[in-house]
């Protein structure tokens, strides 16, 4: 990878992280916590995955569908460890699958934390 | 935004009422080669022409269109758009504007139009049930809450899936939480008569009606098998088909629920997605016995027969959703694997099937592909495209 590509990617990731941090900070002064095992450059992909792919059952706005709503208000009293475990290992007897083939435990925890803070939006597409 | 606020004030209004002077007056035109593509992230509908393979216009202001679906009026001039947020919009494809819009539920999953074109029905998760509207004005005519009572529990509302139109101003739908199939007769639209079939199988997740209107088939998430209802029986009842197709093996994770519609039927056989197995199941519609299964690249989501039934096209749940596979129905073998772009969400055939339009969400692209030679004929730049719907659906039962 040429150095400028790496630099550009880093800037992009940092920009998105900054955006996420700004949004999270609006809800919670602590901001998102970087976990060991979650690379900053992976976060945009995780945000997109939650909005778009988890969104096929939980709704793109996470307001629910076949799956329950995952808004900050609904999840308010849920412990982060339980949410992370549901993401990672699934919930037998329901359509919620285990995501362990696609997500690490640390990534599951990161997503659970972001959900509890009010999940960040994806950056808007710039080409149109 | 001016138009949206005006609409919000007016609520459901007759199609004839002029909204404002801003709509362009189109020259007289047919609708047979029109279609729409849902731009899910922007709440916008892209109007396309399937002959010129071009984007004609965009209609904005349709709300949350994640998992949006569309049915068409009989004249093919109006698209009824069912949004995730419960919004139901009637879009005039010739004038390229919203003629009427109602917020009819908190969380919606799709809808159907009656065979005579007079009734539009929406299936909802919250509140769980079906609502029926006048297709001309979107005035509410009937509300059918999916109320059920599990043993030892208080009555509650089930999420509704698999809504289809049936001959004779009837609709059928499935209750995910109640393991039930209901048939609603709306001969008198304000007094629906409901036939309830209980214990059809665990967690029906979607359903289809065969193109002749005879069989209703619900896919089951909670068990290996499907529920079949012969609607020509005097007293319809549900029975299981393809029971135990998983052979007791551990199911694979299902990262996206498959979708069923009448496109499953190719000639004498129906091609159905297995749940938790990377297989397409082939069933004989005369005997309802399994006659084959075809290993595919991932968890099938859409399994769609071409209009001529010669080939069946399959797309997949993530992480295998960059691919599309094509099954030859004579040999029942995969004859082609395509990679039209990441996150293939939907496919739609032109009316006679010479081309298929495939949406690739993450590539922001809709590809038009020749179904015989597999050449890409055109690519349209469309923002996060999901569902593709052509007006030829207006003439098909169960679409």
Q: According to CATH, what is the topology of chain A? A: Cytochrome Bc1 Complex, Chain D, domain 2
Largest sheet of chain A: none
The spatial strand order of the largest sheet of chain B comes to 3-2-1-34
Count of distinct structural domains of chain A? 1
Helix content of chain B: under 10%
| Rounded mean pLDDT score of chain A | 79
Reported CATH architecture of chain A:
Orthogonal Bundle
Give the strand content of chain A.
Answer: under 5%
Shape type of chain A: globular
CATH architecture of the domain at 116-244 in chain B: 7 Propeller
Run of helices and strands of chain A: HHHH
Number of helices of chain B: 1
Describe this structure in words.
- The complex is a heterodimer of chains A (128) and B (399).
- In chain A, α3 crosses α4.
- The relative contact order of chain A is 0.17.
- Chain A has helices spanning 3-27, 43-58, 80-89, 105-117.
- Chain A has one domain (3-117): Cytochrome c-like domain (Cytochrome Bc1 Complex, Chain D, domain 2, Orthogonal Bundle), CATH 1.10.760.10.
- The model of chain A is unreliable at 5-31 (pLDDT under 50).
- Chain A is mainly alpha-helical and 128 residues long.
- Chain A contains four helices and no strands.
- By secondary structure, chain B is an all-beta fold.
- Chain B has a domain at 116-244: 7 Propeller (Methylamine Dehydrogenase, Chain H), CATH 2.130.10.
- Chain B has one helix at 2-10; strands at 34-39, 44-49, 54-59, 69-72, 78-82, 87-92, 97-103, 107-113, 119-126, 128-134, 140-145, 147-148, 156-157, 160-166, 170-175, 180-185, 193-197, 204-209, 215-220, 226-230, 238-241, 265-266, 269-273, 279-284, 290-295, 300-305, 311-316, 324-328, 333-338, 344-349, 355-360, 365-370, 376-381, 385-390.
- A four-stranded antiparallel sheet of chain B has the order 3-2-1-34, with no helix packed on it. Chain B has a four-stranded antiparallel sheet with strand order 4-5-6-7, with no helix packed on it. A four-stranded antiparallel sheet of chain B has the order 8-9-10-11, with no helix packed on it.
- The longest helix of chain B has 9 residues, at 2-10.
- The chains are: A mainly alpha (128), B mainly beta (399).
């Amino acid at each position: 990878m040429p150095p400028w590509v790496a630099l550009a990617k880093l800037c992009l990731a940092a920009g998105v992280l900054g955006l996420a941090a700004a949004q999270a900070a609006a809800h919670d002064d602590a901001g998102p916590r970087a976990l060991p095992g979650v690379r900053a450059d992976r976060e945009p992909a995780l945000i997109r995955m939650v909005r778009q792919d988890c969104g096929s059952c939980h709704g793109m706005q996470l307001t629910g569908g076949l799956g329950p709503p995952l808004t900050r208000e609904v999840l308010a009293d849920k412990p982060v460890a339980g949410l992370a475990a549901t993401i990672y290992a699934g919930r037998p007897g329901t359509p919620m699958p285990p995501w362990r083939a696609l997500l690490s435990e640390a990534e599951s925890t990161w997503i659970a934390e972001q959900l509890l803070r009010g999940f960040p939006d994806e950056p808007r597409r710039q080409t149109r | 935004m001016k138009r949206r606020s005006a609409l919000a004030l007016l609520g459901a209004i007759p199609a004839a009422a002029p909204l404002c002077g801003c709509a362009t007056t189109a020259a007289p035109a047919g609708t047979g080669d029109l279609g729409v593509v849902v731009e899910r992230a922007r709440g916008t509908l892209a109007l396309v022409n399937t002959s010129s393979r071009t984007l004609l216009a965009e209609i904005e202001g349709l709300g949350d269109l994640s998992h949006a679906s569309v049915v068409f009026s009989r004249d093919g001039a109006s698209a009824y758009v069912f949004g995730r947020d419960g919004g139901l919009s009637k879009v005039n494809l010739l004038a390229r504007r919203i003629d009427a819009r109602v917020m009819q539920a908190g969380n919606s999953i799709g809808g159907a139009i009656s065979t005579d074109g007079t009734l539009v029905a929406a299936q909802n998760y919250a509140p769980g049930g079906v609502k029926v509207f006048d297709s001309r004005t979107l005035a509410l005519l009937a509300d059918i809450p999916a109320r059920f009572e599990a043993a030892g529990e208080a009555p509650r509302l089930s999420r509704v899936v698999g809504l289809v139109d049936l001959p004779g101003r009837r609709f059928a739908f499935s209750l995910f939480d109640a393991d039930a199939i209901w048939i609603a007769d709306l001969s008198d639209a304000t007094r629906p008569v409901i036939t309830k079939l209980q214990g059809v199988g665990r967690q029906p997740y979607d359903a289809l009606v065969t193109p002749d209107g005879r069989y209703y088939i619900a896919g089951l998430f909670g068990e290996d098998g499907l529920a079949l209802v012969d609607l020509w029986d005097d007293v319809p009842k549900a029975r299981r088909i393809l029971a135990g197709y998983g052979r007791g093996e551990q199911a694979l994770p299902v990262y996206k629920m498959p979708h069923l519609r009448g496109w499953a039927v190719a000639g004498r056989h129906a091609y159905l997605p297995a749940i938790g197995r990377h297989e397409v199941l082939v069933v004989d519609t005369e005997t309802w016995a399994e006659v084959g299964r075809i290993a595919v690249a991932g968890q099938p989501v859409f399994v769609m027969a071409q209009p001529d039934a010669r080939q069946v096209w399959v797309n997949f749940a993530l992480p295998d959703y960059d691919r599309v596979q094509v099954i030859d129905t004579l040999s029942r073998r995969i004859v082609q694997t395509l990679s039209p772009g990441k996150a293939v969400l939907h496919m739609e055939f032109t009316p006679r099937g010479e081309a298929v339009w495939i949406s690739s969400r993450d590539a922001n692209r809709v590809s038009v592909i020749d179904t015989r030679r597999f050449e890409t004929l055109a690519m349209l730049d469309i923002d996060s495209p999901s569902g593709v719907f052509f007006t030829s659906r207006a003439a098909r039962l169960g679409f």
